[in-house]
Design goal:
Length: about 550
Amino acid sequence: MAEPKTGELMQKIVSLCKRRGFIFQSSEIYGGLNGFWDYGPLGAELKRNIKECWWRSMTQLREDVVGLDASIIMHPRIWEASGHTSTFSDLMVDCLLTKKRFRADQIEAQSGTAYFYTGASDGQGSKECKDAFSVLIATGKHAEYARKVARQFYQERGLENPALQGERTDELKNTTRYNPENGSLLTEPRPFNLMLKTYVGPVESADNISYLRPETAQAIFVQFKNTLEVSRQRVPFGICQIGKAFRNEINPRNFTFRSREFEQMELEFFIRPDEVVQKRAGSVASLSDPQPSTLNPQPSWGWELWHKYWVEQRIKWYESIGLGRDTLVEYWQKKEELAHYAKATVDILFKFPFGTQELEGIAARGDFDLTQHQKFSGKSMGYFDEEAKAKYVPHVIEPSAGVDRLALALICNAYCEDQAPDEKGKLESRVVMRFHPRIAPIKVAVFPLLKNKPELVKKAKTVRDLLRPHMSVFYDEAGAIGRRYRRQDEAGTPFGVTIDFETLGEQGPALQDTVTLRDRDTMKQERVKISELVSILLEKIR
Ligand code: GAP
């Protein structure tokens, strides 16, 4: 089957998300709210499964990571210490004509003829506006296009019938100073802080300003000491957290990819500074060693190997939930791209239909965050290492992933159009969401072959109730069996169980209490005993 084009594919995915209840526009009946999304029944299950898989792999399957669940609004000094108050901003520009706001780095470079005006006067010359303005149009296009836009600009400034003044032109190449939508000049780029503000308490004064956290990470740093004390962990160890984050993004876009409210899954993994490793182990193993192994953590590992270790752990985790290595790109940020405190950052990118974009960043942040909080709070973040007999502020490796972005990646990755036979064996097109069973919203659908046979319905409901305590089950008796399979294919349900007359023993005792188990991807059906169904399915979905 021909592959749908990128834009067309995204449209199909967005429409399936709404139709099947993965993702809805927030506040839709009021016209929506840009950058905010709601997850419907299937989307809510998908997100829960993502978070549970991450939490399990980060904490329950490891000895050296514990969890935290901190508040969204925290002391505003935290954001001063972390640098968010002063530097967490994007450069933005406004269209001088429509006032529409853009991120400066998202304006595409254009070439053409720029028309400059020094101002305009009213038809009768009674009113004047001295604001300079400029319009960019494609080379060769009639000057009247530029003049029309310029007149609109001066009309907005109170001139009813503007006569343009001081027109001159210039040929410009690769400029990002003009609105690609209408050619109007943009304002100079200026920083726009992305934190969402609110007031805590009954008085709306500057003293009561607080912020909805723009990342979950800072709570981990400020609870480092408390968590260390109660968990009896020793460096190297980690603290992880899943939770909401808010950013007043200038241009939310690409469906849920860049939202204003989203969830993060972050780990701060605290390690010894390299000098302490050197003192204790005699040398520091690093990436430049002849054959550096990053499989099993070693006391001799410096930050480089811990960083690489986490990059590999994270990629393995993505593979375990169905994002193959071929769908991911490991991007090592260049020196000039690194944040000032970062020693190295690797972005794990996913090949979305709209481009290869970041899913997760894994940064080696040194001791920047703990040192900043030590400075701003006046509380020591020092750690006494019994084994190394040294006191230091731990360094940190931070794998930081977005739940919503990952949900979108999994949806894009799962979307597939192919052909499947209907009840009469005739091939028909189907949309199938090939979710890995671990993250599929519904694990198994249970169908009685016929709705109007009470014995079949009764038995099917018994099977549903048998499976329910172990996994998410969907019971469906409406319509032809082929239709019911198609509905589950679109929901991404990996397994279907059909209760038929053989189950009831009508074809003899050998098949009594057996059902057909259908695999969504191979469409193969096998006969299995009801008594073995739970263990067979658990094996496949864990
Ligand atoms: N503590 C580090 C940190 O927050 P980040 O690269 O700004 O780093 C980490 O964010 C992850 O959070 C991103 O890789 C992405 O998955 C997710 N994320 C960030 N901004 C987002 C947004 N506006 N919408 C959806 N997800 C976002």
